[in-house]
């Protein structure tokens, strides 16, 4: 069943190009987005929307943080993202102009289900994004968008994160296009960019050997700080979560600009900084944070774009990723972080598919 891979996690990481292709398939072309028969919106509803709330836990929450950025860029909606365990107890305001989106791989996460029920009781319109058609979330929401990731066995979510990004980008593009927030030429260009992504994901997956070499060099450290800005901030959070979950290495993630507001005190030669720094509009800003970390003698591991020579002078180790348009970088940059966590866990002799204390779905509060 593992198709020759030593662990489900390795197999699932390698399936991500296929997962993304399947999630986009039949739903996206250069002339529009069709979310399928389980989504029942009409043009008036889409144009009446003013707010969108995205709610999830864990890795699914990080997918929502990426979506927040792309929804803000492609639509005029007011976007809010929250962790389900907080959202369900807050005094959220839900109106006829609000779309609530619940993202859960399993569709069984207790807090996400409770948050959905709360929005429903307030009269809000709920979209569920899940990988499991028969799940409780899928049955309870008004509208449903399924990932096409296939069953995920490894406790650490990898390919479902990729599927969630695909589904959330489809949603953002549909809203931007059909509400008229995006001009049609730009929308069509973005659709083309999205359609090409599965191939780009496959090209990144082939670079696993480079990431393994980085893991061999850094697997002995017990504390890591992950940094990223903009689209790379949620990816830093996800990379740190993966490392914690399966290798039991302490890893914290911060928005790069927050580093000097506290975490910089932790930096010293035994605390490497993993920085996600693709060549994008915030590159220089992140680079200045790298310089600050370097001045505290933290080893720097950078996930950086091909052709970025400057980073070689700043980092102790560079993991290369292909260049891509800024808004699509999360699909690319998350892969080496998943691979890094996997290889570190393997080198440290950890249980990879069934890490201690964790369950695949958290069905109690
Ligand atoms: O099934 P869900 O997407 O609702 O699960 C949410 C989290 O429990 C899940 O993402 C968890 O953080 C994973 N172990 C991450 O690898």
From TrEMBL:
The enzyme's E.C. designation: 2.6.1.16
GO terms, molecular function: carbohydrate derivative binding; glutamine-fructose-6-phosphate transaminase (isomerizing) activity
Keywords for this protein: Aminotransferase, Cytoplasm, Glutamine amidotransferase, Repeat, Transferase
Residue ranges of domain SIS in the record: 41-181, 214-355
GO cellular component: cytosol
Active-site annotation: 360 (for fru-6p isomerization activity)
Known catalytic reactions: D-fructose 6-phosphate + L-glutamine = D-glucosamine 6-phosphate + L-glutamate
GO biological process: amino sugar biosynthetic process; carbohydrate metabolic process; fructose 6-phosphate metabolic process; protein N-linked glycosylation; UDP-N-acetylglucosamine metabolic process
Entry's localization field: Cytoplasm
Broad class of the protein's primary localization: cytoplasm
Biological role: Catalyzes the first step in hexosamine metabolism, converting fructose-6P into glucosamine-6P using glutamine as a nitrogen source.
Subunit structure: Homodimer.
The name this protein goes by in its record: Glutamine--fructose-6-phosphate aminotransferase [isomerizing]
Organism expressing this protein natively: Thermanaerovibrio acidaminovorans (strain ATCC 49978 / DSM 6589 / Su883)
Portion of the full-length sequence here: 244 to 608 of 608
């Amino acid at each position: 069943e593992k198709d020759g891979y030593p662990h489900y996690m390795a197999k699932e990481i390698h399936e991500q190009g296929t997962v993304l292709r399947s999630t986009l398939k039949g739903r996206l072309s250069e002339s529009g987005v069709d979310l399928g028969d389980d989504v029942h919106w009409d043009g008036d509803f889409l144009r009446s929307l003013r707010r969108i709330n995205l709610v999830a836990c864990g890795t699914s929450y990080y997918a929502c943080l990426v979506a927040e950025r792309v929804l803000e860029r492609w639509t005029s909606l007011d976007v809010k993202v929250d962790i389900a365990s907080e959202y369900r107890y807050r005094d959220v305001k839900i109106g006829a102009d609000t779309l609530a989106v619940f993202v859960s791989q399993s569709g069984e996460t207790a807090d996400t289900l409770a948050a959905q029920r709360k929005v429903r009781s307030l009269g809000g319109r709920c979209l569920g994004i899940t990988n499991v058609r028969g799940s409780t979330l899928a049955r309870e929401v008004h509208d449903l968008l399924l990932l096409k990731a296939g069953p995920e066995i490894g406790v650490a979510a990898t390919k479902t994160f990729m599927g969630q990004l695909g589904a959330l980008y489809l949603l953002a593009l549909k809203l931007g296009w059909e509400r008229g927030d995006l001009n049609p030429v730009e929308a069509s260009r973005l659709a083309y960019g999205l359609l090409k992504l599965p191939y780009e994901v496959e090209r990144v997956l082939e670079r696993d050997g480079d990431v393994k070499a980085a893991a061999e060099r850094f697997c002995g450290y017990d504390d890591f700080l992950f940094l990223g800005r903009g689209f790379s901030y949620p990816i830093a959070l996800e990379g740190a979560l993966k490392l914690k979950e399966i290798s039991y290495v302490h890893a914290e993630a911060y928005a790069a600009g927050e580093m000097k507001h506290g975490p910089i005190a932790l930096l010293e030669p035994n605390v490497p900084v993993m920085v996600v720094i693709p060549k994008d509009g915030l590159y220089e800003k992140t680079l200045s944070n790298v310089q600050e970390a370097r001045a505290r003698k933290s080893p720097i591991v950078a996930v950086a774009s091909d052709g970025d020579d400057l980073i070689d002078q700043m980092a102790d180790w560079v993991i290369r990723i292909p260049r891509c348009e800024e808004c699509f970088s999360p699909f690319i940059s998350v892969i080496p972080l998943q691979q890094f966590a996997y290889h570190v866990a393997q080198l440290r002799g950890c249980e990879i598919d069934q890490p201690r204390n964790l369950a695949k779905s958290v069905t109690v509060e």
